[in-house]
Amino acid sequence: MRTRRQGWRRVVRDETGQTMVEYALVAALIAVVCLLAVSELGEAIVGVFERIRDEIADV
What we know:
The protein is mostly helical. The protein has 2 helices and no strands. It is rod-shaped, with a radius of gyration of 26 Å.
């Protein structure tokens, strides 16, 4: 019975799982920010090429 109690205390005090979850959350947040940035950048690049196309068509 005593070793079982000590085992539970060790599980409760163990913080390695918390660290992994924190790293996973940070990685997920970084991924979302990167996706949003690439999406916005893509739209801006499309706008530039559309303006270039329009200028060429007007010549």
